[in-house]
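Hello again, I could really use a second opinion on something today. For a while now I've been wondering how a particular protein folds. Please have a think about how the structure follows from the sequence. Here's the protein in full, and shout if anything looks odd to you:

***
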Amino acid sequence: MPANDFSSKLAAHEAAMPPAMQRVAHYLDRNKVAVLAHSAAELAAMIGTSDASVIRTVQALGFQGMAELRQSIAAAIGKSAAPLQHMRQTFEDLEGKGSSAADLVIDTHMESLAQLQEPAARAEIHEAIALLGGVARIVIYAAGPSRLLAEYLRLLMGRHGQACKTIGQGGLGLADELLDLSEQDGLLILSYGKPYKEVLLAASEANKAGAKIVLVTDTPNTKLAKLAQGLITARRGRTERVALHGATLIILEALVMGLAIANQNRTIRTLARLGTLRDALG
């Protein structure tokens, strides 16, 4: 749908609308994100009218109702509106069901854990450990909220003596981060949804350098997945609901433990030195 579809409909229909309906339509046009986040009654309170007036205005513009209007706006806004849409849908799931948000989170993570217990899911993690176990350095690519998980992973790996760095800057900054990729590296990518050009470039450069690639993702059938030698499927909660990263964290900690066991002498030596340094600071 064209990004200006709502505005085009407004331009085509507003001449036939009474002034009160025009006021509602112009408010909706200027506040599309609010339309995604609020009910007709809530929007009516913001505008100073009735929910029936809001719905009549939406229908006068050519939409069947609020649901179709929200779908149109979400399609026009694109990915930037996805977190809001997913949170709204999560709220709607909870309404009238007597369950709490905490119950929803716990139940969702239990579903993800059940999936990780399947032999095929465990095999993916074991294969990733084998791929990364012999590399000199692990480079972790992550952007957005996943960057915090990457930094936690880098800290744990450092404590086990594993050379490690995180990358994932947007724009031109990524170019500097990719300069020293080599065949001695393993690239661990955390990427969800449709891959952006930055992560595709990182994977392409890793392949050119001869580095091994392990991808952790919830979308295993992408161009990015085809560039990886190892693939771990990680759920981020329920489809089109608020994203939850518990399963990813469990997978990453399983990787850390597997790599620590694969390099036991280095792990013990580094942890002993960490203890010495802590004693000196105590």
